[in-house]
Amino acid sequence: MNGNGNQSYSWEKGRGNGEESKNDFRENPHELSNIKKVIAVMSGKGGVGKSAVTSMLAVTMKRLGYNVAILDADVTGPSIPKAFGIKEKATGSEFGIFPQKSKTGIRIMSINLLLENDTDPVIWRGPLLGNTVKQFWTDVIWGDVDFMFIDMPPGTGDVALTVFQSLPIDGIIIVTSPQQLVSMIVSKAVKMAEMMNIPVLGLVENMSYFKCPDNDKEYKVFGESHIDEIAEKHGLKVLANIPIDPKISAACDAGMIELFDGNWFDSFAEGLASQICELEEKQ
Asked: For an engineered disulfide with 48, which of 105, 142, 177, 179 has Cβ 3.0 to 4.6 Å away?
Protein backbone atom coordinates (compact mmCIF):
# COMPACT_ATOMS: atom_id res chain seq x y z
CA MET A 1 0.00 0.00 0.00
CA ASN A 2 1.17 3.55 -0.63
CA GLY A 3 -0.09 7.07 -1.08
CA ASN A 4 -0.25 6.89 -4.87
CA GLY A 5 -2.91 5.81 -7.33
CA ASN A 6 -6.66 6.17 -7.39
CA GLN A 7 -8.49 5.28 -4.22
CA SER A 8 -12.15 5.15 -3.29
CA TYR A 9 -13.62 5.93 0.10
CA SER A 10 -16.82 4.89 1.78
CA TRP A 11 -18.82 7.07 4.14
CA GLU A 12 -21.48 4.45 4.90
CA LYS A 13 -20.61 4.23 8.60
CA GLY A 14 -20.16 7.96 9.10
CA ARG A 15 -22.42 10.12 11.24
CA GLY A 16 -23.67 7.11 13.15
CA ASN A 17 -25.38 5.44 10.19
CA GLY A 18 -24.18 2.11 11.45
CA GLU A 19 -25.54 0.51 14.59
CA GLU A 20 -26.93 3.41 16.63
CA SER A 21 -25.97 3.84 20.24
CA LYS A 22 -28.79 3.97 22.76
CA ASN A 23 -27.47 7.34 23.91
CA ASP A 24 -26.97 9.87 21.14
CA PHE A 25 -24.92 12.80 22.46
CA ARG A 26 -24.47 14.54 19.11
CA GLU A 27 -24.88 18.31 19.05
CA ASN A 28 -26.39 20.30 16.21
CA PRO A 29 -24.20 22.91 14.55
CA HIS A 30 -25.16 26.58 14.58
CA GLU A 31 -28.37 27.18 12.64
CA LEU A 32 -26.44 29.33 10.16
CA SER A 33 -23.89 26.57 9.50
CA ASN A 34 -24.21 24.03 6.70
CA ILE A 35 -21.36 21.53 6.97
CA LYS A 36 -21.31 18.59 4.57
CA LYS A 37 -18.34 16.45 5.63
CA VAL A 38 -16.44 16.38 8.92
CA ILE A 39 -13.05 14.66 9.08
CA ALA A 40 -11.03 14.30 12.28
CA VAL A 41 -7.24 14.21 12.03
CA MET A 42 -5.73 12.47 15.04
CA SER A 43 -2.56 10.86 16.29
CA GLY A 44 -1.95 8.45 19.11
CA LYS A 45 0.93 10.59 20.38
CA GLY A 46 2.28 14.11 20.02
CA GLY A 47 5.16 15.27 17.88
CA VAL A 48 4.25 13.56 14.62
CA GLY A 49 3.19 16.68 12.72
CA LYS A 50 -0.56 16.21 12.95
CA SER A 51 -1.38 19.92 12.72
CA ALA A 52 0.83 20.32 9.66
CA VAL A 53 -0.96 17.40 8.01
CA THR A 54 -4.35 18.90 8.92
CA SER A 55 -3.29 22.21 7.40
CA MET A 56 -2.01 20.65 4.18
CA LEU A 57 -5.16 18.55 3.79
CA ALA A 58 -7.30 21.67 4.13
CA VAL A 59 -5.14 23.60 1.66
CA THR A 60 -5.30 20.74 -0.84
CA MET A 61 -9.11 20.66 -0.75
CA LYS A 62 -9.24 24.46 -1.01
CA ARG A 63 -7.08 24.32 -4.13
CA LEU A 64 -9.73 22.07 -5.68
CA GLY A 65 -12.27 24.84 -5.20
CA TYR A 66 -14.14 23.63 -2.12
CA ASN A 67 -15.27 25.60 0.92
CA VAL A 68 -13.00 24.38 3.70
CA ALA A 69 -12.82 24.93 7.45
CA ILE A 70 -10.54 23.85 10.29
CA LEU A 71 -11.82 23.41 13.84
CA ASP A 72 -8.77 23.43 16.11
CA ALA A 73 -9.69 21.00 18.89
CA ASP A 74 -6.16 20.96 20.30
CA VAL A 75 -7.11 23.52 22.93
CA THR A 76 -3.99 23.22 25.08
CA GLY A 77 -1.61 23.21 22.10
CA PRO A 78 -3.22 25.24 19.31
CA SER A 79 -0.98 25.80 16.30
CA ILE A 80 -3.36 26.18 13.35
CA PRO A 81 -3.61 30.01 13.46
CA LYS A 82 0.20 30.25 13.48
CA ALA A 83 0.54 27.98 10.44
CA PHE A 84 -1.89 30.17 8.49
CA GLY A 85 -0.50 33.47 9.72
CA ILE A 86 -3.73 34.53 11.40
CA LYS A 87 -3.21 37.19 14.07
CA GLU A 88 -6.66 38.80 14.22
CA LYS A 89 -8.99 37.62 16.97
CA ALA A 90 -12.38 36.02 16.38
CA THR A 91 -15.37 38.34 16.46
CA GLY A 92 -19.00 37.78 17.31
CA SER A 93 -22.50 39.17 17.47
CA GLU A 94 -25.75 38.32 19.17
CA PHE A 95 -26.08 35.49 16.64
CA GLY A 96 -22.80 33.73 17.37
CA ILE A 97 -19.04 33.67 16.85
CA PHE A 98 -17.44 34.25 13.45
CA PRO A 99 -14.36 32.24 12.47
CA GLN A 100 -11.34 33.95 11.02
CA LYS A 101 -10.42 33.37 7.38
CA SER A 102 -6.99 32.58 5.98
CA LYS A 103 -5.49 34.31 2.95
CA THR A 104 -7.21 31.86 0.59
CA GLY A 105 -10.50 31.79 2.51
CA ILE A 106 -10.14 28.74 4.77
CA ARG A 107 -12.33 29.31 7.85
CA ILE A 108 -10.55 28.69 11.14
CA MET A 109 -11.60 28.60 14.78
CA SER A 110 -9.08 28.07 17.56
CA ILE A 111 -8.74 28.94 21.23
CA ASN A 112 -5.83 31.21 20.28
CA LEU A 113 -8.31 33.39 18.40
CA LEU A 114 -10.04 34.06 21.72
CA LEU A 115 -7.08 34.49 24.07
CA GLU A 116 -5.73 37.96 24.74
CA ASN A 117 -2.18 36.74 24.12
CA ASP A 118 -1.19 33.78 21.96
CA THR A 119 1.26 32.62 24.61
CA ASP A 120 -1.31 32.52 27.43
CA PRO A 121 -1.56 28.90 28.66
CA VAL A 122 -4.89 27.11 28.82
CA ILE A 123 -4.85 25.34 32.20
CA TRP A 124 -8.21 23.61 32.17
CA ARG A 125 -9.49 20.20 33.19
CA GLY A 126 -10.91 17.74 30.68
CA PRO A 127 -14.63 18.63 30.88
CA LEU A 128 -13.96 22.33 30.24
CA LEU A 129 -11.72 21.48 27.29
CA GLY A 130 -14.41 19.25 25.82
CA ASN A 131 -17.14 21.84 26.29
CA THR A 132 -15.01 24.46 24.55
CA VAL A 133 -14.63 22.24 21.50
CA LYS A 134 -18.37 21.59 21.48
CA GLN A 135 -18.99 25.34 21.50
CA PHE A 136 -16.70 25.70 18.49
CA TRP A 137 -19.23 23.45 16.75
CA THR A 138 -22.50 24.82 18.14
CA ASP A 139 -21.78 28.54 18.62
CA VAL A 140 -19.56 29.36 15.65
CA ILE A 141 -21.24 30.53 12.45
CA TRP A 142 -19.35 28.46 9.89
CA GLY A 143 -21.62 29.16 6.93
CA ASP A 144 -21.49 26.78 3.96
CA VAL A 145 -18.63 24.30 4.35
CA ASP A 146 -17.91 21.34 2.08
CA PHE A 147 -15.12 19.89 4.23
CA MET A 148 -14.35 20.58 7.86
CA PHE A 149 -11.09 19.18 9.23
CA ILE A 150 -10.80 18.83 13.00
CA ASP A 151 -7.27 19.07 14.36
CA MET A 152 -7.49 16.74 17.34
CA PRO A 153 -5.28 16.79 20.42
CA PRO A 154 -2.87 13.84 20.70
CA GLY A 155 -4.08 10.64 22.27
CA THR A 156 -7.47 9.13 23.08
CA GLY A 157 -8.52 11.21 26.10
CA ASP A 158 -11.43 13.42 27.11
CA VAL A 159 -11.46 15.77 24.13
CA ALA A 160 -11.27 12.95 21.59
CA LEU A 161 -14.17 11.19 23.29
CA THR A 162 -16.20 14.42 23.37
CA VAL A 163 -15.58 15.10 19.68
CA PHE A 164 -16.45 11.58 18.59
CA GLN A 165 -19.63 11.53 20.69
CA SER A 166 -20.83 15.10 20.10
CA LEU A 167 -19.90 15.86 16.48
CA PRO A 168 -21.08 13.97 13.38
CA ILE A 169 -17.65 12.70 12.35
CA ASP A 170 -17.65 11.13 8.88
CA GLY A 171 -14.19 9.66 9.07
CA ILE A 172 -10.82 9.73 10.81
CA ILE A 173 -7.32 10.17 9.41
CA ILE A 174 -4.52 8.91 11.67
CA VAL A 175 -1.10 10.55 11.45
CA THR A 176 1.95 8.56 12.44
CA SER A 177 5.73 8.46 12.05
CA PRO A 178 8.17 5.66 11.16
CA GLN A 179 9.25 4.54 14.65
CA GLN A 180 8.29 0.97 15.54
CA LEU A 181 6.84 2.15 18.86
CA VAL A 182 4.19 4.00 16.89
CA SER A 183 2.59 0.70 15.83
CA MET A 184 1.16 0.21 19.31
CA ILE A 185 0.02 3.84 19.52
CA VAL A 186 -1.73 3.68 16.15
CA SER A 187 -3.50 0.50 17.20
CA LYS A 188 -4.97 2.36 20.18
CA ALA A 189 -6.32 5.12 17.93
CA VAL A 190 -7.76 2.60 15.46
CA LYS A 191 -9.46 0.65 18.22
CA MET A 192 -10.99 3.83 19.64
CA ALA A 193 -12.40 4.66 16.22
CA GLU A 194 -13.86 1.16 15.95
CA MET A 195 -15.42 1.45 19.41
CA MET A 196 -17.01 4.76 18.40
CA ASN A 197 -18.23 3.23 15.10
CA ILE A 198 -16.37 5.80 12.99
CA PRO A 199 -14.52 4.70 9.84
CA VAL A 200 -10.79 5.25 9.57
CA LEU A 201 -10.17 6.69 6.11
CA GLY A 202 -6.49 5.86 6.22
CA LEU A 203 -3.03 6.49 7.62
CA VAL A 204 -0.55 9.27 6.89
CA GLU A 205 3.11 8.66 7.68
CA ASN A 206 4.87 11.94 8.35
CA MET A 207 8.66 12.38 8.45
CA SER A 208 8.85 9.21 6.38
CA TYR A 209 12.25 9.96 4.84
CA PHE A 210 14.64 12.76 3.94
CA LYS A 211 15.51 13.35 0.30
CA CYS A 212 18.98 14.82 0.04
CA PRO A 213 19.06 17.74 -2.43
CA ASP A 214 22.74 17.02 -3.26
CA ASN A 215 22.45 13.41 -4.44
CA ASP A 216 18.66 12.90 -4.65
CA LYS A 217 18.90 9.86 -2.37
CA GLU A 218 16.30 9.06 0.29
CA TYR A 219 17.49 8.54 3.86
CA LYS A 220 15.36 6.90 6.58
CA VAL A 221 16.24 9.27 9.41
CA PHE A 222 13.82 7.65 11.90
CA GLY A 223 14.41 4.10 10.72
CA GLU A 224 12.55 1.86 8.34
CA SER A 225 8.87 2.51 7.81
CA HIS A 226 6.31 0.18 9.38
CA ILE A 227 3.28 1.91 7.89
CA ASP A 228 2.45 -0.83 5.40
CA GLU A 229 2.54 -3.47 8.12
CA ILE A 230 0.26 -1.39 10.35
CA ALA A 231 -2.14 -0.67 7.49
CA GLU A 232 -2.33 -4.35 6.50
CA LYS A 233 -2.88 -5.40 10.10
CA HIS A 234 -5.92 -3.15 10.42
CA GLY A 235 -7.15 -3.34 6.82
CA LEU A 236 -6.46 0.34 6.16
CA LYS A 237 -5.12 2.47 3.31
CA VAL A 238 -1.87 4.42 3.37
CA LEU A 239 -2.90 7.85 2.17
CA ALA A 240 0.51 9.51 2.00
CA ASN A 241 4.17 9.19 2.93
CA ILE A 242 5.38 12.71 3.66
CA PRO A 243 9.12 13.40 3.69
CA ILE A 244 11.09 15.48 6.16
CA ASP A 245 11.09 18.79 4.34
CA PRO A 246 12.48 21.93 6.00
CA LYS A 247 10.31 23.98 3.66
CA ILE A 248 7.15 22.66 5.35
CA SER A 249 8.40 23.66 8.80
CA ALA A 250 9.49 27.04 7.48
CA ALA A 251 6.10 27.60 5.87
CA CYS A 252 4.30 26.81 9.15
CA ASP A 253 6.61 29.06 11.15
CA ALA A 254 6.10 31.92 8.68
CA GLY A 255 2.32 31.49 8.54
CA MET A 256 2.56 30.55 4.86
CA ILE A 257 1.41 26.92 4.85
CA GLU A 258 -1.00 27.74 2.03
CA LEU A 259 2.03 28.06 -0.26
CA PHE A 260 3.38 24.55 0.45
CA ASP A 261 4.58 22.66 -2.61
CA GLY A 262 3.69 18.96 -2.64
CA ASN A 263 1.20 16.54 -4.19
CA TRP A 264 1.07 13.96 -1.40
CA PHE A 265 -2.66 14.36 -0.82
CA ASP A 266 -3.85 14.85 -4.41
CA SER A 267 -5.15 11.31 -4.89
CA PHE A 268 -6.93 11.30 -1.53
CA ALA A 269 -8.40 14.76 -2.19
CA GLU A 270 -9.84 13.58 -5.49
CA GLY A 271 -11.48 10.69 -3.65
CA LEU A 272 -13.05 13.10 -1.16
CA ALA A 273 -14.20 15.35 -3.99
CA SER A 274 -15.99 12.48 -5.72
CA GLN A 275 -17.87 11.75 -2.49
CA ILE A 276 -19.12 15.34 -2.32
CA CYS A 277 -20.30 15.11 -5.94
CA GLU A 278 -22.23 11.92 -5.15
CA LEU A 279 -23.77 13.57 -2.09
CA GLU A 280 -24.91 16.59 -4.11
CA GLU A 281 -26.42 14.36 -6.80
CA LYS A 282 -28.46 12.50 -4.18
CA GLN A 283 -29.74 15.79 -2.80
From this structure: 177
Average per-residue pLDDT in the chain?
87
User: Which ranges constitute the DSSP H helices of 73-226?
Assistant: 80-83, 126-138, 158-166, 182-195
Per-residue model confidence as pLDDT tens digits over 117-158: 888 888 888 889 999 999 999 999 999 999 999 999 988 888
CA–CA dist 234, 66 (Å, integer) = 31
Rank 34-48, 59-73, 117-131 by mean pLDDT and report only the highest. 59-73
CA quadruple 46, 197, 124, 150: dihedral sign: positive
Handedness of CA 58, 200, 73, 22 (dihedral sign): positive
The confidence score (pLDDT) of residue 12 equals 44
Other C-beta atoms within 10 Å of 183: how many?
Answer: 15
Residue 140 DSSP class: B
pLDDT of residue 10: 44
- The b-or-e profile of 106-141 (16+ CB within 10 A means b, else e) is bbbbbbbbbeeeeeeeeeeeeeebbebbbebbbebb
211/219 Cα distance (integer angstroms): 6
Q: What is the distance of C-alpha 282 from the center of its chain?
A: 26
Threshold 0.70, pTM exceeds? yes
Residues contacting residue 256 through CB under 8 Å, at least 6 positions apart: 85
Phi, psi of 246 (to 5 degrees): -55, -25
Interval 63-68 mean pLDDT: 95
Dump strand ranges (E) for the chain: 34-42, 68-72, 91-93, 96-98, 100-101, 107-109, 144-151, 171-176, 200-205, 210-211, 218-219, 238-241
CA 269 to centroid of chain Cα atoms: 13
Q: Where are the domains of the chain?
A: 23-282
Q: 23-282: CATH homologous superfamily?
A: P-loop containing nucleotide triphosphate hydrolases (3.40.50.300)
